[in-house]
Amino acid sequence: MEGGFFKVPEGATVNLCLNGHTLTGNTSVTVSIRGTGATLNICDCQSGNVITYGNIDETGLWTKSNTAGNCNLNGGVITGANVHGVKLFKTSNFNMYGGNIAGNTSTDSTVEKDGGGIYAEGSNRVSMYGGSITGNTAPDGNGGGLSLYNGEFNMNGSSRIEGNKTRNGGGVYLEEGSGSDISGGYITNNTATENGGGVYVG
Hints:
Layout: E1 2-3, E2 6-8, E3 13-17, E4 22-25, E5 31-34, E6 39-43, E7 50-52, E8 61-73, E9 77-79, E10 86-96, E11 100-102, E12 118-121, E13 125-128, E14 132-134, E15 137-142, E16 146-149, E17 152-155, E18 160-162, E19 165-168, E20 172-175, E21 179-182, E22 186-188, E23 191-195, E24 199-201
Parallel strand pairs: 1-4, 2-5, 3-6, 4-7, 5-8, 6-8, 7-9, 8-10, 9-11, 10-12, 10-13, 11-14, 12-16, 13-17, 14-18, 15-19, 16-20, 17-21, 18-22, 19-23, 20-24
């Protein structure tokens, strides 16, 4: 699939199996999950599948809902976004069971310079049961792997956050009432030029 963006409407459940193909977007948002009860399940039926966003100016995978919108990532690679690999806004749930969010860079110098891999703003929940967030950067911001404001982060199982870089919170950046429950997984080899190479809580 190539070109514009793929939209999951209110109340709909969409199962997206890449099956060896690449999803490439050339608009400001490649995949958008919008509206109450919208759910997107992404799976990887073959090894090496990639969700890639090319040289776009915005977010790759974006959830926006006044109530809970949902995305379940079971496989594939989210890569190549120039602002955030994944963006959560308002009250969305993002669950990782597999796959990788890798090689995304947050470069917006004015507003959204945080969260190279995942940027979550509002009463969102990010839960990692598996998969990895690796090699993402936010050069002038916070949270190379994950940046969370006023939300909840849960990590367990075999999840990995590693090799991410930023100013504060190389792996994870939590601020403004955010909570976390880390009962498993690995946060390793992340880099911060100022504070919190692995995790920063502010």
